[in-house]
Each structure stands twice: as C-alpha cells, then as structure tokens.
Amino acid sequence: MKTQIFAALVTLIASMNASAAVKTISDRDPNETLAKVPQDLVTVLRNSGVPFRALNNGVYSVSVKDLDCGYHANSALDPSSPDAAVATTICLANSEPGSRPQKGQKLADSIALSKVLGDIQLEDCAMGRCFSWAPHINCTVDTKVERFSGAGRFACTIDDGN
Questions:
Q1: pLDDT digit string (tens) for 56-88?
Q2: How would you class 31 by CB atoms within 10 Å of its CB: exposed for 0-12, middle for 13-18, buried for 19 or more?
Q3: Rounded Cα–Cα distance for residues 132 and 121 (Å)
Q4: Is the residue at 140 inside a domain?
Q5: Which of 73, 84, 107, 132 could be disulfide-bonded to 128 (CB atoms 3.0-4.6 Å)?
Q6: How far is CA 140 from the centre of its chain?
Q7: Can you spell out the DSSP letters for 91-119?
Q8: pLDDT (tens digit, 9 = 90+) per residue, 98-129?
Q9: pLDDT score, position 161
Q10: In angstroms, rounded to a whole number, what is the distance separating the alpha carbons of residues 121 and 127?
C-alpha cells in the first residue's frame, strides 16, 4: 500500500513539474500560428506603450510583468440592452493575481493581445468568460536579422504561471 501511495505521489509531482512551463516561441517555429506570436506580441505591447530596452549587439527587449486579461461575452444580458453580445476585453500589466482584471496598467490593444494569448493556449474559459494570466512575458527583437519573419528576428519567453 505504501508503495502505491509513493508511486502516486511521484506521478503527481512529475505531472505538476511537467505542466509548470516557461514557453519560448520564435518566429522560426514550424507551427505557422505559433511562428506569428512573437511578432504579434511585440506589436501589441509596443502599441500599448511598453518601451523597448536595449540589451546588446542590436538586440532589444520588450516585457511586461503580471499580465492579466479578462474577456466577457455579455451574451447573458437582456437582448434589449445595447451591450448584449458586445464582448468586453481588458488586459492589464502589473496586475494582482486574481484581480480579474481590476488593478494595474491598462494595455491599449486588449482584444489583439487576448487573441495572441489564446493562440498560445494561455486562456481559461467558462460560461462566456475567459481569463489569461502570465507572470512574465519577455520578447526580443534582433535587429541584426534583416528578414522580418521566419528568420529568428522575433522571440518571446512566456511564463505561464503554472
């Protein structure tokens, strides 16, 4: 019996460690959808006012901490309401986990950002509501790479919080 419990605990711990992930995605990814994510993330973050930071040798980074996005379909509203079925999407940086999202710096292009996070499966959805949480997203742009796609110019590291 003790051996079975020990084996179950080892399996549980191994599965928890396997789900804890920091994902690195490059524009070289063979999956076409994922290959677009780094450039899209850089675009959305820059359009939201997140500044570039020079690293070295022509490499720049753009990053956010404690990113929280919330989507609400509003489909449960009374049809006589003009907001019925008009989705609400808000993304915040520097937010507090579980605030869903209420506190933090509002990012300008929340709909686009929410869609990108959905592409990398960071969304948790139920009953017309979706939430995404990432403790840290860091993207780099290597300006030495002259091709704008598929050549390693864009890469992102995403801590999914698990």
A1: 999 999 999 988 888 887 777 778 888 888 888
A2: exposed
A3: 9
A4: yes
A5: 73
A6: 15
A7: EEES--TTSSS-SSEEPTTHHHHHHHHHH
A8: 555 567 888 888 888 888 887 777 777 777 77
A9: 74
A10: 17
Can you count the helices (H) and strands (E) in the chain? 3, 8
Reported as type and span, the H/E element at residue 40 is helix 32-47
Q: Is the dihedral of CA 34, 21, 91, 76 positive or negative?
A: positive
Task: Copy the structure tokens of residue 24.
Answer: 């690195």
> Does the residue 15 lie in any domain?
no
Q: Which residues pair with 68 in a beta bridge?
A: 92, 133
What does the chain come to in residues?
162
Q: What does the pLDDT read at residue 11?
A: 33
Q: Which domain holds residue 150?
A: 21-159
The overall average pLDDT reported for the chain is 79
Distances (CA, A) of 63 to 6, 37, 53: 41, 14, 9
Angle at 91 (CA atoms; ends 61, 94), nearest 5 degrees? 60
DSSP 11: H
Domain count, the chain: 1
Q: Within a domain: residue 104? A: yes
Question: Whose structure tokens read 């930071």?
Answer: 53
